[in-house]
Design brief:
Order of helices and strands: HEEHEHEHEHEHEHEE
Bound molecules: S-adenosylmethionine
Number of helices: 7
Number of domains: 1
Oligomer: single chain
Helix content: 40-55%
């Protein structure tokens, strides 16, 4: 198990139970209490495989400042915050919906991880523009039509050897036009190396690196 702390592990199991219940609901047609389920009712999590991958990557890369775009209900934040706490890093997480942020904050507080998380409410593009940076590690997982604008806002603040993990590169298929535009923008930057990883719903893993900054 990735989470050593039993309280964090218990919170993760609660999230997984909610994921399973949402899957059953959607398989049954997606109606809840006589109203259709909206995407804002759902966790829409990165999933355990990507969560574990991000956790390991944070431990290996040792970023000081982690940026999460798309807190949702805090599933991915749990992985980032647990890894951040182990290495003395900070997570800045951004979300549009106050009720999702409140849910995430409560879960992280209960898990003893709230001290390493700076919760910010509002539009990620404006919030990133207002932050001086730098960002050493970024999880990009907001609505896909905002990926490109977010990338443009955060790219100048990405530290040397900084990493961006962008979710939903493969699924859902409806996101493909936005995702294509995002990947093209990343590939156009000469100081970014990037690769598509077929894990979870598809992660584009991008690293800022240039020969001039190589430590010889
Ligand atoms: C796919 S969910 C994030 C899932 C989360 N990373 C996880 O794994 O649990 C996307 C979230 O981004 C939020 N969002 C969408 N557009 C946003 C924006 N422009 N600024 C801030 N948050 C945004 C949505 O409200 C939603 O909660």
């Amino acid at each position: 198990m990735i989470f050593d702390d039993p309280i964090v592990a218990a919170t993760f199991e609660e999230y997984q139970a909610r994921v399973a219940s949402e899957r059953r609901l959607m398989a049954g047609g997606g109606a809840s209490a006589n109203r259709p389920v909206s995407r804002d009712d759902l966790l829409l999590p990165v999933g355990p495989e990507v969560g574990s991958f991000l956790h390991s990557l944070v431990l290996a890369r040792q970023p000081r400042r982690i940026l999460e775009l798309g807190t949702s209900y805090g599933y991915s934040t749990l992985f980032l915050a647990d890894a951040a706490k182990r290495i003395g890093a900070q997570v800045v997480t951004m979300e549009l919906a106050d009720y999702k942020q409140a849910y995430a904050r409560e879960r992280l507080a209960r898990s003893g991880l709230v001290d390493v998380v700076d919760f910010r409410l509002g539009d990620a593009v404006a919030l990133v523009e207002a932050d001086p940076g730098p960002f050493d590690f970024v999880l990009l997982d907001i609505w896909k039509d905002v990926y490109l604008r977010c990338f443009e806002a955060l790219y100048p603040k990405l530290s040397e050897e900084g990493v961006i993990a962008a979710d939903n590169m493969i699924d859902p298929a409806t996101a493909r036009p936005s995702v294509r535009a995002y990947r093209a923008a990343v590939k156009a930057k000469p100081d970014l190396q990037t690769v598509l990883l077929p894990i979870g719903q598809g992660i584009e893993l991008t690293v800022r690196w240039s020969a001039e900054n190589a430590k010889l």
